[in-house]
Amino acid sequence: MIYVNDDHYSRDFFNARFAYYETLPVLRNCAGQRLAVCLTDTAEWIALCLFIREKQGSVFPIHAATPLEAARRAAHRAECHQLLFHALDNPVVISERAADAAGMLVQMSSGTTGEPKTIARAWDSIDEEITSYIASFGAAAQLTPVVACPVTHSYGLICGVLVALQRGVQPIVITQINPKYVIKILRTHPQHLLYASPTLLNTLSQLMPTGTRFHAVMTSGAVMPKPWFEALQQKTEFLFQQYGCSEAGCVALSQHMQAANDMGKPLPHVELVAGTNSETPAEIVITKQGTTIFTQDLGYLDTQGHLFFVARQDDTIIVAGLNVYPQEVEDVLLEYGPITESVVYKKQDAYAGERACVKFVARAAVDINHLRAWCAKHLAPHQVPHEFQQLDDIPRLPNGKINRKSLANATAVAPA
Question: In this structure, what DSSP letter does residue 305 have?
Fold first, then answer.
């Protein structure tokens, strides 16, 4: 069935766990119940998720490192009935509300533009996504999925694990996210398809031994900076990218990436509209099973029907009426020799309404005045950052994304 790191878990293991779950009232009678689950054993979590899905219960996965009180708060926020924390036979009662009408996978939005919100997707909606994903992604049929991202998140769980099991392929789930260990696993399985975040992929790309290449790589969750994308292209036989949102799951898949922001063609189970070109991006709107989802992402569809992501609406910076898209400025900053990572965000300004600001990481101390002058040569005046700050590291959320709003609340230096 699956590998977790170097350990194999056969169908017999899953059958035995299913039999054990039937002895526990909280699981045997879980239809309509919303269970928050926080387990340290990844194989146990996957088995339990499959069981709850089969029983038409609802499950809310919580990252294994979450402390009890934080898990309890998350379970309450997600309107769960009970919490299974590090054990299955001692459930914590959270709520006695009415049962769910259908079994669902429950997750929290990333919260990068505000307070996290609960997203509940029915299992039949997820089954439709899996069927559409498999039908559209024939290139992956004979590859071994190596899932180096959390399987408590839909990217790793649905596209990495559930899709593989539906195909009849044994996925390898990696919980030891040590880059050298990941590379060892990839070399052991030469026909691999690696599911990972852009940050991990960039690290692996830099550490990949000379003369070796990734076979196939899938990225998702955030657009890679242009230099990362180009470096990974040189070390990968097949580079894929998928796009989606918490409410709809994966809705587009790029199998022949033209650029770092190329999200590919929409999957057949959804309808998708956006802008018509890079000069006039518009909100990406998804229609799925009769429901319209406004993503708050800006993008456009080219003449070939490929979706290109431009920016989050809330991240767009409007300087004296002119739009500044952070990714465009970040890519230019990464062309400045010492800089290895940059994040552009907005701050309010009394004269221009908003201003672009940047925090960056570099291999050596950077002369801010020189950097500002360099930006003035390579960017339009309204795109040049108003504030610059060099950091040792860019703070990230647990899912690897960056909360641009929180960066604006931190003290910056070197205003123009």
Answer: -
